[in-house]
Amino acid sequence: MDGFDTLLVTLNAILWHDWALFILLGTGVVFTFWSGFSQYRALTHGVQVVRGTYDDPDDPGAINHFQALSAALSATVGLGNIGGVALAIALGGPGAIFWMWVVGLFGMSIKLTEVALSMLYRNTDDPENPHGGPMWVVSKGLERMNPSLAPLGKAIGWVFCVTLLVSTVTGGNMFQAWNVGEITEEYFGIPSVAAGIVLAILVGMVIIGGIKRIGAVAGRLVPIMCALYLLAGAYVLAINISDIPAMFLLIFQSAFSSHEMSGAFIGGTAGYAFLFGMKRALFSNEAGQGSSPIAHSAAKTDEPVREALVAGLEPFIDTLVVCTFTSLVILSTGIWNRAPEAVYSNPPALMEVGTGEWSLETVLAPESSEGPWAGGEDVYIFVTAGANEATGNDLHRLEGIVIEQNGSFVIEWGSLSSSTQPVLDRPGIFVDFVAATLTAKAFDSVTPGLGKWLVTIAVWLFALSTMISWSYYGEQGIIYMFGEGMVLPYKLIYCALIIVATVGFITNTSDLDNLTGVGTGVMLFANIPIMWLFGSQAMRAYHNYIDRLKAGKIGPDHPAPSLEDLISGRDVE
Q1: Which of 19, 105, 260, 292 is most open to solvent, judged by the fewest CB atoms within 10 Å of its CB?
Q2: Is residue 6 classed as helix, strand or coil in its secondary structure?
């Protein structure tokens, strides 16, 4: 298995190299200018379409525009919005948020283009149950371009679907279930497998009804979970309202200049803020990955670009709204640059434990301001050594873990590579609050217990919605490869894996993470060339639609339906 793990790590390093992210961002920039800043149309006309004024029950498709958007959002609005933003700030500093906004903005044009293509090439042999996605685009598109290329298109479609299924089973299913089980057992003592069984039943009850039930559930669940999270964030921001202008100023300043070490934050350069902000935004809104076009292809419409404009709203909601709330909560509460949780009164000695490897001696852990140590806490301390390119200073993090030893707690420190002897001139010890935990601590700092309950509820809702939508993505991959006959066995296996993820077989999620990274990375590499190859068709269709809209040839045929009819999908029944 070590060799397999090494292979996965190597593949991830290649697939998610910085240049790959630059290509993706460049794609967004090109299609933004090519479409004449389609973001404006998405935020104006797209909102009207979502409201249901263009819904027509006679159009091909299974669900209305609102439900299609909700289904796609339910897969993207999730743990990345809670933990991913925290990670971006912890590693890249406040400036990472600015670059998340930039990527979210350009991501809107990427979503519009990839969904427009999927709508143009979707399979509507059964008008009530259409199929779409990059696999259909490349398969049908290459065949139309040249019949001799049909086998190549089919093969690329298979590659995309195989990696789609890898991502579905790992990141879209088992990783979500594992997180829910872990946080439920940690906070409430409920066995992880019990949470897995409940999740499997809930997911099974939804996905067995197909896309119409998925759309109906997503249409209700996504607004509720987003509203819950945003209301809690608004509460925290209201308490810290006087700090908000300074937070925005800090974000803009840190985006273009190095940020000095401050409390728990080691410091960071503008370049690293850019990279971490870009990575987290792209991972969060899935622009260019080719997954959400599968959900949008189920929308009832005879205008491909109409649903593409709806899809353009996804990165705006996911990145520019939800992620911004998380970032402002973390920044305004000061949890990202907090004071140390413990301080050595007599710092331990720094020792060379190998050639060029340095560590601290293992001594008793000093008293923590957060309460008694429990054991197992990941901690870090700053040491001064050679120049650190990531931080723009000479500070480095030395990481350790709190362990119980003979009835007392000690810190067992790892090692740091340095050609010169490091100096421990900052004896403060910080608990390493990773990802979602940092966000929870930010909420707890305002109202104790708020983070525990909010993050637990959010993880359940976000995970449930993600698993429901990703089950549909995988289902469409199965249909493309094997046909409708394999859908039911797939759904049964999908639900069984939810329980498998929570029975204790998974003790470390790194393998799931690496598999998910490879799956989504290959999806990205398959989808981006498809966008470049057929993107001109999407842009032609887009400009044609906008010209007709400007000329008054396209207009709503009826008033907006009631919210209940819109959410339930009754307006297109």
Answers
A1: 19
A2: helix
Instruction: Tell me the C-alpha distance between 139 and 153, whole Å.
Output: 4
Buried b (16+ CB within 10 A) or exposed e, 1-26: eeeeeeebeebbeebbeeebbeebbe
265: DSSP letter: B
pLDDT for the residue 437: 75
Q: Strands, DSSP E only, in 118-250? A: none
pLDDT at 77: 80
The residues pairing with 15 across neighbouring beta strands, listed in sequence order, are none
Short-list 88, 377, 394, CA closest to 266: 394
Number of C-alpha atoms within 13 angstroms, CB side, residue 538?
29
C-alpha closest to that of 295 among 320, 314, 316, 317: 314
Predicted confidence at residue 261, as pLDDT, reads: 83
The per-type count for the chain, helices as H runs and strands as E runs, is 23, 8
SS3 501: coil
* DSSP code per residue over 144-171: HH-GGGHHHHHHHHHHHHHHHHHHHHII
Distance CA 342, CA 427 (A): 9
- Could you state, in chain order, the average pLDDT of each consecutive group of 10 residues for the chain (573 residues)? 69 78 90 96 95 92 92 82 78 87 92 96 90 94 93 93 89 84 81 93 92 90 88 91 91 87 83 79 80 93 95 92 90 90 91 88 90 88 87 87 90 89 90 78 86 83 89 95 94 94 68 69 86 95 96 87 89 85
Distance CA 442, CA 436 (A): 10
Element (DSSP H or E) covering residue 342: strand 342-343
Q: 401 is written with which tokens?
A: 């873990």
Three-state DSSP class for residue 569: coil
Distance from C-alpha of 273 to C-alpha of 30, rounded to nearest angstrom: 23
211 Cβ neighbours under 8 A, 6+ residues apart: 62, 63, 71, 129, 298, 472
Q: Which CATH architecture has domain 19-337+445-572?
A: Up-down Bundle (1.20)
CA–CA gap between residue 424 and residue 448 (Å, rounded): 33
Contact partners, residue 70, CB within 8 Å, separation at least 6: 215, 218, 219, 221, 222, 223
What was the pLDDT predicted at 156?
93
- For position 87, what pLDDT does the model report? 76
Q: Where in the chain is the domain with CATH 1.20.1740?
A: 19-337+445-572
Closest CA to 116 of 531, 555, 570: 531
For the entire predicted model, the pTM comes to 0.88
SS3 560: coil
